[in-house]
Specification:
The protein is α/β, with parallel strands linked by helices and 230 residues long. It has helices spanning 3-26, 44-52, 63-72, 92-98, 108-117, 145-154, 173-190, 205-210, 220-223, and strands at 34-38, 57-60, 80-83, 99-105, 123-128, 158-164, 196-198, 215-218. It has an eight-stranded parallel β-sheet. Bound molecules: pyridoxal-5'-phosphate.
Length: 230
C-alpha cells in the first residue's frame, strides 16, 4: 500500500471503531448507522481508495467539486453521492445528475427544483434544520419544517428520509442533539417513513449517535485535516 492508502485505511478503521463503540454505549446496533465519508478538498484518488476499503457512501459540499469528482470515478460500482452543503436552487439541476441523497434541503423552492431536475431517478432528502434560528449556515426554521416536509413527501421523485443539522459552534452539543432528536420524532409522527437522522461529524459523532443519528458525515477524522480556506 502507498502511504496515503495506509493513512486512509487507518483513519477509516479508527472512525468505524468509534461508531461501533458509540453504538454499543447507546444500546444500538452498529449497522443502524451509515458512515458518509465527506471527501471535500480531497482528490478523486481518495474516493478510489475508500471504495477499495468498502466505503460506498461519500459526501461533498460544493457542486463544482462534486460533479467533477463524481465524473472522475463514474466507473466505481455501487457508489452513492451525498450532497451535504448549502445549495442554491439554480444548482439543483447539476446536483440531481449525480447526487443520490441531498442532506441540505431547507426551502420549498429548492425541493421543487430538485424534483423537477430528477428525471428518471429518485433523490433521498434530509431536511436541514437550523437549531439556533441563524440561517446563514443554512437550515429551515423549526416553524417551517412541517410545510417543507409535506412538500418533499408530496414530490413525485423525492423520498423524505428525515432531518439533518449542524449544531452551532460553541453550543451545548448534548442538548442540541437532544432537541434535534425530539424534532425528528415529531416529524416521524406525521411522516412514518422519515425515520433517518443525519447528525454528527468528526468531533461529535458519539454524541449524535447517543441521540439517534442514523447517518454520520465524517471528513477530517477519516482523511486528515483540510487546508484552511482563506
Ligand atoms: C465538511 C462537512 C462535514 C464533515 O466535517 P468534519 O469535521 O471534517 O468531519 C460534515 N457535514 C457538513 C455539512 C460538512 O460541510
Amino acid at each position: 500500500m502507498t502511504d496515503r492508502a495506509t493513512q486512509v485505511a487507518l483513519g477509516l478503521g479508527d472512525v468505524q471503531h468509534r461508531i461501533a463503540g458509540a453504538c454499543v454505549a447507546a444500546g444500538r446496533v452498529p449497522a443502524a448507522v451509515t458512515l458518509v465519508v465527506v471527501t471535500k478538498t480531497w482528490p478523486a484518488s481518495d474516493v478510489r481508495l475508500l471504495h477499495a476499503l468498502g466505503v460506498r457512501d461519500v459526501g461533498e459540499n460544493r457542486d463544482q467539486e462534486a460533479s467533477q469528482k463524481a465524473a472522475d470515478v463514474a466507473d466505481l460500482p455501487g457508489l452513492r453521492w451525498h450532497f451535504v452543503g448549502q445549495l442554491q436552487s439554480n444548482k439543483a439541476r447539476s446536483v440531481a445528475r449525480y447526487a443520490d441523497v441531498v442532506h441540505s434541503v431547507d426551502r420549498v423552492k429548492l425541493a421543487r427544483a430538485l424534483n423537477d431536475a430528477a428525471t428518471g431517478r429518485r433523490i433521498g432528502c434530509f431536511l436541514q434544520v437550523s437549531l439556533d434560528g441563524d440561517q446563514r449556515r443554512g437550515g429551515a426554521l423549526t416553524s417551517d419544517l412541517a410545510e417543507l416536509a409535506d412538500a418533499v413527501a408530496g414530490a413525485e421523485r423525492l423520498d423524505l428520509l428525515g432531518l439533518m443539522a449542524v449544531p452551532p459552534l460553541g453550543s451545548d452539543l448534548d442538548s442540541r442533539f437532544a432537541e434535534l432528536q425530539e424534532l425528528s420524532e415529531r416529524l416521524r409522527a406525521d411522516h412514518p417513513a422519515a425515520g433517518e437522522l443525519s447528525a454528527g461529524m468528526s468531533g461529535d459523532l458519539e454524541t449524535a449517535i447517543a441521540h439517534g443519528a442514523t447517518h454520520v458525515r465524517v471528513g477530517s477524522a477519516v482523511l486528515g485535516g483540510r487546508p484552511r480556506l482563506g
